[in-house]
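Closing statement on the nicotinamide-adenine-dinucleotide sub-project.
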Amino acid sequence: MSTARLAERVAIVTGGGNGLGAECARVLASQGAHVVVVDIDSDAAREVAVSVTASGVQSLAVACDVSSEEQVKDMVEQVKSRFGRIDILHNNAAVLSVDQRQRDRDICNLDMQAWDRAIAVNLRGAVLCSKYAIAVMLERKAGSVIFATSGLGMQGDMSLTGYACSKAALMMLPRSIAAQYGKQGIRANAVQIGLAPADNAHGSMPPELLDIIRDNHLTPELGTPRQIADVVAFLASDESSFITGTTLVADGGFSSHTPSLVAMRALFEKMGRSGM
Ligand SMILES: NC(=O)c1ccc[n+]([C@@H]2O[C@H](COP(=O)([O-])OP(=O)(O)OC[C@H]3O[C@@H](n4cnc5c(N)ncnc54)[C@H](O)[C@@H]3O)[C@@H](O)[C@H]2O)c1
């Protein structure tokens, strides 16, 4: 029998077909979990599901729009009939297409369809997956539910109003779930993710923008999908068994410093005190 820390566990990763979700699927599998890759993009889900079997685990790809109650209910039934249990749910799916980001703007210019879609996928989707997956977790009185949130759910910014509000709600949801089901063995936590673009996403962001964001990190570099997936695997594992109802910040210190830090650093450098 495998001694990997997630051996025999069954993990669902929503939005697992691309980006951080795909990396989470790979890392959970490398630690012994059987992985269900759920995505609206069925080809991507299938590709990731096939690739994780290289770790010697089983996998299942499910095409599912997480904003649809019918589809989520059906997805969880497929997982239950294939594996008989659910131990880990990572609510990672979010609508982040270029078109969505261009319409989810500041409040006066907000396209209400983009607002509705952000709430439907990012928030309602996470609620629906939790609703149906936790019912299965309760049968074994154990489970870890994880939510992918963002600094934009904590701090104001110029645009992405719907995205930000959906992510703010994802910091409340684990507290509700932890309070409601903690005594029955269910833990729930969020990860507040800093900028951790997949390799192929760097090119889609202007270098000036990346420089501004990098300057505001307290680490030498931006994050990587692997760094985020390692935090998710920790929250999924028994090593985090005393952590519930909280948001773990994995953002390279982006949200930890004074708003004036970058300007101060530049000023000190100009004054010849770069050793600060
Ligand atoms: N990458 C980052 O730097 C970063 C920073 C902060 C937060 N996050 C959060 O991490 C998560 C993953 O981000 P990413 O950058 O990998 O995004 P991504 O766009 O690369 O991946 C999102 C995945 O969700 C899927 N998806 C979209 N709508 C769906 C739906 N209705 N039903 C099912 N699946 C759907 C997409 O097909 C895609 O595979 C998101 O929740 C995002 O808000 C990411």
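The pocket of nicotinamide-adenine-dinucleotide is lined by residues 14-15, 17-21, 39-41, 44, 64-67, 92-96, 121, 125, 148, 150, 193, 195-197 (CB under 6 Å). With this model delivered, the sub-project is considered complete and its resources will be redirected to Aim 3.
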